[in-house]
Amino acid sequence: xxxxxxxxxxxxxxxxxxxxxxxxxxxxxxxxxxxxxxxxxxxxxxxxxxxxxxxxxxxxxxxxxxxxxxxxxxxxxxxxxxxxxxxxxxxxxxxxxxxxxxxxxxxxxxxxxxxxxxxxxxxxxxxxxxxxxxxxxxxxxxxxxxxxxxxxxxxxxxxxxxxxxxxxxxxxxxxxxxxxxxxxxxxxxxxxxxxxxxxxxxxxxxxxxxxxxxxxxxxxxxxxxxxxxxxxxxxx
Length: 236
Fold this sequence. Notes:
Elements: E1 5-14, E2 17-27, E3 32-36, H1 43-50, E4 56-63, E5 66-67, H2 73-79, E6 81-84, H3 96-103, H4 112-122, H5 124-128, H6 139-151, E7 157-161, H7 169-184, E8 188-193, H8 196-202, E9 205-210, E10 213-218, H9 220-224, H10 227-234
Parallel strand pairs: 3-8, 3-9, 6-7, 7-8
Antiparallel strand pairs: 1-2, 1-4, 4-5, 9-10
Helix pairs in contact: 3-6
């Protein structure tokens, strides 16, 4: 049985600058896979290349068995590979409801009402603020909105890019608990994070990315037992 997402020797970057240098990884259905690394390791470049926002220089990306290496970003979204980008990137002048509805523009439009109810069940605070402009929400609420917008597209795989960034310690705890809950409900998740400790508590497997290449892959317990690797690449 093939992996849900299979990345094979992927190269990519910006313009002529190569950032990803032969990255290979797999994600199976039902998993949380964490991609860890310091700032500048290539994590966001990986996300954006997989999702078709940046062109691949080489290698292949397969999603549910189909080659999407050079597919348009809209086609990748339509296939169910959905990214919640770093920094939330909600539409500040639109209401909470409008932001959520835009999540189902390309995929999931026919079941928009059911998806809204699911999002509101996960994030009751968003139901209370449907008419409120996104710009007026707190940082934690904006992150809820960004994830809710991703859920509206009925993802087969959800990529979360630094979901804990800028949140208070209490909200970070809540965010990781939420990610675990979504996974237990059947959602496959690629979690790209700098928060190593919290990520390894909920991940099934982990990759460490450094200077555009994979320097470790294994179970969280293996990584936590590898003191030199933690110190050299993760700063812990």
